Prior knowledge:
By secondary structure, this protein is of the alpha+beta class. The chain has helices spanning 2-23, 97-106, 151-212, and strands spanning 26-41, 62-71, 77-82, 116-122, 134-140.
Amino acid sequence: MVYIKWAIILLFWGTVGSVLHYALPSHDTVRIVNTYEERQELNDWTRMFWAVPDDQSVNLISRDVQFIQAVRPSNRAIVYRNEDTGWGWPFYFKFDTANLYTEANDRISTKSDPEWVSVMHYGWRNEFLSIFPNAISIKPVAGPDHSPVNWFNIVFLTILAGIVWAIWVRWRRFRQARIDPMIEDVEDSLYAAGDAISERRGRIRRWLDSWKSK
Length: 214
């Protein structure tokens, strides 16, 4: 039971951590090298990683998606998709896909004359599953060494940790005040019943032994 308990706890917190890692914003310092639009085939089991389309195209299995190609200071390539999140999850309320696409085109630069930008995004990049992070905003930065402090994540995780701590403390107090006494009463009743059965068996055994001695 201990192993099952810890397996459930690890599975729960692993799921929570994965959801937060996917949904919370990240910042990449990159150089934009190209933008393009491509029709993407959406598989049933990977559609969760794409923005929800409008009502008229919700049943389509493919649609045109805008992409932003960039290069990190380490010369590693990264590709972002550019989709509106609208009023859906995650709650970025992004409605400016066309504007962001224009900004990305305006920031295209070459290796000999680089222009570095900070791309705020959420999501994962997976070549095997064809998953791309979704770009939310683009801001120019001084250089490739720019490393912003993600204050939103710090504040959000601090508040979330405080809420979890408050819930855990109240649950612990409730358990100690209500649940633990009930469990103790049940255990005491079981022990008392066990003692009564043992005492009854002892009397029966003594009675049988008295007949054997006659």
